[in-house]
């Protein structure tokens, strides 16, 4: 009989499915719930157990992991008679790996404490590829003892796992992460259009740029997207638009000016308004092309 904690996984999307499968490969018993039946079929094919509801999934779990799109979805699965807090056993550890507002995480931790449920906010960076390869960067907020307990589980999902402070700290760091990523993608997209317009060998140019100070994980991960104009979603524009709203609001609350971030947030919003919200965020290239008068 395995001595590993029993895990409930809520949300089996682009990130959640491969992450839950990595836990199964590591020997964890994973019971999952999501709204898409085909994702439940994928989970069972990987060796997991499908649950028909959140309540069923979490009832016997030691660790509950939620990975859903935004604050409203976290609140929908956490609260109410069929939610996590009403059905988890006292002492269970809820790890929310969604990217949501820091305030939502703080409020969730307070509500869970009244039910005897412990909470960590643990958003991730690395996209679909990082989830598949289990090399995510995981930024965590919550109590040190709960983080120490969760460390083996999180270490199965990511390469860099760091507690950043109390409840909400993980989400604050994730907001900063999304700011940096968006600005970086925008800069890369502008460079690509500039290089193409100048008649330079784009593949060679991106290779040499990525070997110097201009190199970045963003360029490494997204270079193929730019070269092949492959905008199949690894991380959708819609979600990055949501995240830019989070960082803009959070920065305003603490009095931090984000002049470049504010411009990029508007460019992401514009891309989404033009119907590209379902594409990968590397599709910011399309926005730059439109501004440059290119046919998209």
UniProtKB/TrEMBL annotation:
Keyword Signal attached: no
GO BP field: glyoxylate metabolic process
Active site: 174
A GO term for molecular function: 2-hydroxy-3-oxopropionate reductase activity
Annotated 6-phosphogluconate dehydrogenase NADP-binding domain residues: 6-164
Pfam families named in the record: NAD_binding_11, NAD_binding_2
Keyword NAD appears in the UniProt entry: yes
Keywords, ordered alphabetically: NAD, Oxidoreductase
Ranges for domain 3-hydroxyisobutyrate dehydrogenase-like NAD-binding: 168-287
Family recorded in the similarity comment: Belongs to the HIBADH-related family.
Name under which the protein is recorded: 2-hydroxy-3-oxopropionate reductase
Organism: Streptomyces griseoflavus Tu4000
Upper taxonomic lineage: Bacteria, Bacillati, Actinomycetota, Actinomycetes, Kitasatosporales
